Amino acid sequence: MRAIGLMSGTSMDGIDAALIETDGETVSWLGSGLTLPYDAATRALLEGAMADARGVNARDDRPGRLAEAESRITTLHGEAVRALMETLRLTPSDIDVVGFHGQTVIHRPDARLTVQIGLGQALADDLSIPVVADFRAADVAVGGQGAPLVPVFHQALVRALELPAPVAVLNIGGVANVTVLEKDADPIACDTGPGNALIDDFMAERTGRPYDESGRAAAAGRVDEEPVKAVLAHPFFTAPPPKSLDRNEFKAFVAERLNLSGLSTEDGAATLTAVTARTIAALVPLLPRAPQSWIVAGGGARNPTLLTMLEAILGRPVRPAEAVGWSADALEAHAFGFLAVRSLRGLPLTFPTTTGIAAPLTGGVRFSPRLREM
Ligand SMILES: Nc1ncnc2c1ncn2[C@@H]1O[C@H](COP(=O)(O)OP(=O)(O)OP(=O)(O)O)[C@@H](O)[C@H]1O
Ligand SMILES: CC(=O)N[C@H]1[C@@H]2OC[C@@H](O2)[C@@H](O)[C@@H]1O[C@H](C)C(=O)O
Question: For residue 16, which phi and psi values (nearest 5 degrees)?
Fold first, then answer.
């Protein structure tokens, strides 16, 4: 099938869209992708919606700015798909399915609650293409973590590579997550801790720019090791996988331990970057075997300071996704195209080793386009 995957991640920087050809088990082609950045007003609306989501108790609640944000991002996802189809000279009849992740506004699997806003039916009608959405709901409903979902996709891609096992695929988005693969065993996976979210929030506050471009501020700063150790003392980092996180889970805890207000912009960026690197590495002792190969994707792959710290702690080279023929920017979008096809075929998306459920489980909700009245 030919699918377009859509991801609007926890960094809230924009929508990634990418084309993929797959049967949901193997990947025959990773096609082009694009990013439709959110403008400042949409970002502000999403930040407001996330704040209002703290009051959500049921999946369908849309208090405050959530309803407006949901409608806005649905329209923008339609624009992203159209832009990608235009670039590739494709029409809706060339696409079998769109995988629509939506925007996570709250993730509390302990309370069996995870909400990705996005109107699947409206997007299917808008594009005249079937849409699969709500990928996390089924897993969380039976007590799973609901995240990460990409491991089964990483597994399909890594099968085609010849790298020393175990192979770890690391995604550094707002939150960081890792998939560890060895032979045909189910992938071991979890969120490891903050990815770029804390660095982004700190940089935005200090400089007005949303991230530490190429890790330059961190490269000029000094890491304060003691408070980093205090952050690592949080029980999340010694809990075995599977485990998942809400974007803002560690914001208050880390701010308290690091006393950021007393640090220069450079030292603060360096220390937060070390928190990301060390919390990723903290997974290794919790695994059956240390990964021999590391592949990194997500926006954090564009931060050389973070990658250098990671290589130093892991003692292994960390390859960017591009080095194995994938795209660091489009990988999650490709994943949701792949997962949409798996969902249509009723194949499992999550496993006991990825989200903690009792048995492999499919997921996603299908929306067929309704015929427009003439
Ligand atoms: N050139 C760069 N230099 C430094 N950091 C960068 C650069 N480009 C992107 N990033 C970081 O990557 C982030 C975006 O990453 P990405 O798009 O993978 O996240 P996401 O998909 O929104 O998050 P998640 O995977 O948690 O859902 C930015 O917010 C920024 O922190
Ligand atoms: C609840 C939620 O949206 N989680 C995201 C987030 O961003 C990264 C990490 O935390 C991961 O667990 C997940 O996204 C990826 C795409 C996943 O589910 O695999």
Answer: -95, 135
